[in-house]
Design brief:
The complex is a heterodimer of chains A (458) and B (396).
Chain A: E1 2-4, E2 10-12, H1 27-35, H2 40-66, H3 87-99, H4 107-125, H5 132-152, H6 158-166, H7 170-173, E3 177-178, E4 181-182, H8 183-206, H9 211-233, H10 248-274, H11 279-294, H12 297-311, H13 320-346, H14 349-357, H15 362-377, H16 379-392, H17 404-411, H18 422-455
Antiparallel strand pairs in A: 1-2, 3-4
Chain B: H1 20-53, H2 83-116, H3 121-135, H4 139-151, E1 161-163, E2 167-170, E3 173-176, E4 178-181, H5 185-213, H6 219-238, E5 242-245, E6 248-250, E7 253-255, E8 258-260, H7 262-289, H8 292-300, H9 305-335, H10 347-359, H11 362-391
Antiparallel strand pairs in B: 1-2, 2-3, 3-8, 4-5, 6-7
The chains are: A mainly alpha (458), B alpha+beta (396).
């Protein structure tokens, strides 16, 4: 619309319709000009990149799917020119890759452990689901105890061992088994508990503190310890499976999960120690953390395999897997401590001051105010250290424990499956498995990070 | 009357164990006692165990004859050399992998990291896939893959892949020409040193001149000319004393040249590409941490794109990149201990592996091995802290 005045002045009071942008600036062509061919260097990079993709991807797809052999009984199936991946090899070795040499008739126990782990882990990972506290207790405390019984068969006769070393009346009375339960041990255990309770309670009361609460704390500690010993001790009728027979993904997961579960409490303690006001405690924590962080995991495993047995009393000959687990747990505790410390440092000082102002003790402040916030903040960090631990478990093959990669390497030597493609098939399969685990976890950690960021926006 | 207010003017009616000071001292004492007790019992047990197993103690074994061969030695070593010598050989092999790996990883890491921020869709996608795949596969898996699946699958020496007729790649490793130093080679080496010295001097002089007069000199081009020209001149004057001995195929193997063993190639390439994925992420986040306002401000001052990058973006990004970069370097050095998985003779394989099996002196050997890595970590951490202090932003 426009207006024309009497004197002929022309005023346009409406904008002209904008012209569409030039054809070259919109659409796919423009995008390509802008992003792919904007200069000589860029064009060169694009061409080289496309060449690289063409060079890598189609052969990979051909190898893994198009040319692959899907069925067969032995190496005959995978011989021949232009043959891709030999998947029957993986099919034949699948049991070994997952369970190692775990007896076939007992593999259901491993399956139950896997399934229970997944069942407990999924609700723990979904942030919005309720019952986190009991869920965490089940996963971090109850699950390892039960998994231990299922995987080894339990019945480790810890009571006799403890009785021999620390027993009070064992020497006087001798053994007395009733219904598979070592009665002498348990009488002894109750006596020890009462004695220790009286001693600690009395000492605290003598110094003027609350002897009663100290005694009750002691009772709880002994009670839970006793429960674990009882569960591991009782004969549930499962066959004993040596850890030497374990292998494959089972060992990989056992090491990674034990490493994380054991390193979490230890790491929290170390992190608190490192931030403590007490110089001796702080120094000890710093030395411990920096020592383990400064050495490669291989030397830790060598330490656990060759040096640790020398440090233990004569006659104790811990299991090879157990030794590796101790090494891994100490190693990852140091890394976990640094992750937790990051979380502790992120909690504003006002939280500490507020907790102290309402009269909480130090342990109440940590338990109720600081740690819940700090640990939630560092979930991504914990998942990330789990990923690196998961990748690091491959190192145990160097101290002759057959994890997933070790089992794969061992299966290459089977003459029944000796073909030119066996090696590549194995690497392709293991690569996919490791990638799925690690990539999945890293995505999860990113997701949690994003979720936490939105709720803590300042 | 009952005294409701409690003791007036007296001390609070609380036990002294509720005094934070007493508690703190008590707790520290307990911690100390526990640690000392553990240390004492470990020592006692170790003494008993060593006596029972008849294992010698002390570091005297370092002077004994090692009696095993090592397939890559940077210094003269034979089966009659001592364990101490074997230790040095292993340490040098570790450092060799670390240095070559760090250089390669830095180059690849920076390229991929910049690639992840590229506007070019193809480059960006390839870089992302590279980072995600390499980061999520265990390093030992990658080392074994390079060793077993790539290098062992190379053709034998007779059919080896030749690059320009000078470098040969086969399943025995990579053979490269060996430089031979004739008469006068010393002069050339001196010329290279002099050129580097002059280049540094010139750079400083050009910078201070620019500060004073505002005139800019093409430092890079002049220095490049200096660095290439001076050694070349020395070569011409002395009549080309440095020649290369090109490997030749004789019978079933190569004669002449330097043989790089496949274990070294597999370990270095795998560690470099693995670490590069992490470095790429550090580089990306470092560049992203420089706010876009810096670029705009630099452009509005009239700096060109390359100048903006070189003078404004990179110096600020480096502040963020370098601390995690050093810890990646340290990780690469520590991961070089994975060599034992494929039999590359590094410190762990030679010393904590073969020497430990022969002598049985686990405590000494593992303590030395861990001590070496610990020392490397402490040195890196100290240097890093000093650097951090220097570049940290000085805030009010």
């Amino acid at each position: 619309m426009s207006m024309t005045f009497d004197d002929g002045t022309f005023i346009r009071n409406e904008m002209v319709e904008p012209l569409p942008p030039p054809k070259q600036r919109i659409g796919a062509v423009a995008w390509m000009r802008e992003n792919l061919f904007s200069g000589v260097l860029n064009t060169l990079l694009t061409v080289l990149g496309i060449l690289a993709v063409v060079w890598v991807v189609p052969p990979l797809v051909r190898f893994m799917i198009i040319d692959a052999v899907w069925t067969g009984e032995n190496r005959e199936a995978c011989l021949g020119p232009e043959v891709g991946a030999c998947w029957p090899f993986i099919h034949a070795k699948f049991g070994q890759l997952i369970y190692g040499f775990y007896p076939i008739s007992e593999r259901w126990r491993v399956d139950i452990v896997f399934a229970a782990g997944a069942l407990l882990l999924v609700p723990l990972m979904v942030l919005s689901w309720p019952f986190k506290r009991i869920n965490a207790f089940l996963f971090f405390v109850a699950y390892p105890v039960v998994a231990f019984v299922l995987l080894t068969g339990g019945n480790i006769n810890a009571s006799a061992f403890l009785l021999e070393r620390f027993g009070l009346i064992g020497g006087l009375v001798g053994d007395a088994q009733i219904g598979g339960v070592n009665l002498v041990f348990w009488v002894d255990y109750v006596l020890t508990t009462l004695l220790v309770m009286a001693a600690i309670g009395g000492l605290i009361a003598l110094l003027g503190g609350s002897g009663r609460s100290a005694a009750i704390t002691t009772l709880w500690v002994f009670l839970s310890l006793g429960l674990v010993i009882f569960i591991w001790d009782v004969d549930v009728g499962l066959d004993y499976v040596e850890t030497r027979q374990w292998g494959g993904l089972l060992v990989t997961l056992v090491i990674a999960v034990t490493g994380i579960v054991a390193s979490l409490p230890l790491g929290i303690l170390l992190a608190l120690g490192r931030r403590s006001q007490m110089p001796v405690v702080r120094l000890l924590s710093v030395i411990f953390i920096e020592f383990w962080r400064g050495v490669p995991l291989i030397t830790v495993l060598f330490f656990a395999t060759y040096m640790l047995p020398l440090f233990l009393p004569q006659g104790t000959n811990p299991d090879a897997l157990l030794r590796a687990l101790v090494g891994v747990a100490l190693f990852s505790a140091a890394y976990m401590a640094e992750v937790v410390r990051g979380g502790l440092q992120a909690i504003p000082k006002g939280q500490y001051e507020g907790a102290m102002a309402v009269g909480l003790t130090w342990s109440q402040m940590m338990r109720l105010i600081v740690l819940p916030q700090a640990l939630t903040l560092v979930i991504p960090g914990i998942v990330n250290s789990f990923i690196s631990l998961f990748k690091d478990t491959t190192l145990v093959l160097i101290v002759s424990i057959f994890d997933f990669l070790g089992q794969l390497r061992a299966s290459f030597t089977d003459p029944n499956w000796a073909t030119p493609v066996t090696l590549y098939t194995g690497f392709a399969f293991a690569g996919v498995v490791y990638f799925l685990f690690c990539f999945g976890m890293s995505r999860y950690s990113l997701f949690v990070e994003r979720r936490l960021n939105t709720s803590h926006r300042h | 009357m009952t005294d409701l207010a409690g003791p007036v003017g007296g001390r609070a009616k609380s036990s002294f164990i509720n005094d934070p000071k007493v508690r703190s001292i008590g707790l520290q004492l307990i911690a100390l006692v526990v640690v000392v007790f553990l240390g004492w019992s470990f020592t006692e047990n170790a003494r008993d165990n060593l006596a029972a197993q008849k294992i010698a103690t002390g570091f005297g074994f370092l002077d004994n004859t090692a009696g095993f061969g090592i397939n890559q030695t940077l210094i003269p070593y034979s089966e009659t050399s001592t364990y101490g010598r074997a230790f040095v050989v292993g340490l040098l092999n570790t450092l060799l992998v670390a240095v070559v790996g760090i250089i390669l990883a830095t180059i690849i890491g920076f390229l991929v990291g910049i690639g992840r921020l590229s506007k070019n869709f193809v480059v960006r996608t390839i870089s992302t896939v590279y980072v995600e795949v390499l980061r999520n596969l265990p390093p030992l898996f990658q080392i074994l893959f390079w060793y077993l699946a790539v290098l062992s699958a190379m053709p034998g020496p007779r059919n080896s892949i030749s690059l320009f007729g000078e470098v040969f790649i086969s399943n025995r490793g990579i053979i490269i020409p060996r430089p031979l130093f004739g008469d006068g080679a010393g002069i050339v080496v001196w010329a290279i040193g002099l050129a580097i010295f002059l280049a540094i001097l010139f750079r400083h002089w050009a910078a201070s001149r620019q500060e004073e007069t505002g005139r800019y000199l093409p430092v890079l081009r002049i220095n490049l000319g200096l660095l290439i020209g001076l050694p070349l001149l020395a070569m011409i004057v002395t009549g080309f004393p440095i020649t290369f001995e090109v490997p030749e195929l004789k019978g079933f193997n190569f004669v002449g040249g330097i043989q790089v063993i496949p274990e070294f190639v597999a370990l270095t390439v795998a560690l470099a590409t693995y670490t590069a994925a992490f470095i790429a992420e550090n580089v990306r986040s470092g560049i992203q941490s420089v706010s876009h306002g810096q670029t705009e401000a630099a452009h509005s001052l009239g700096l060109r794109h390359a100048q903006t990058l070189r003078l404004v973006i990179i110096p600020q990004a480096m502040r963020v990149i370098i601390p995690p970069l050093t810890s990646q370097y340290l990780n690469l050095t520590k991961n070089s201990s994975l060599a034992v998985g494929i039999g590359y003779p590094d410190l762990v394989a030679v010393f904590a592996g073969t020497a430990l099996n022969q002598t049985g002196q686990a405590i000494e050997i593992i303590a030395i091995t861990m001590g070496v890595y610990l020392l490397l970590s402490i040195i890196t951490a100290t240097v890093m802290n000093a650097y951090n202090k220097r570049v940290a932003l000085v805030e009010r």
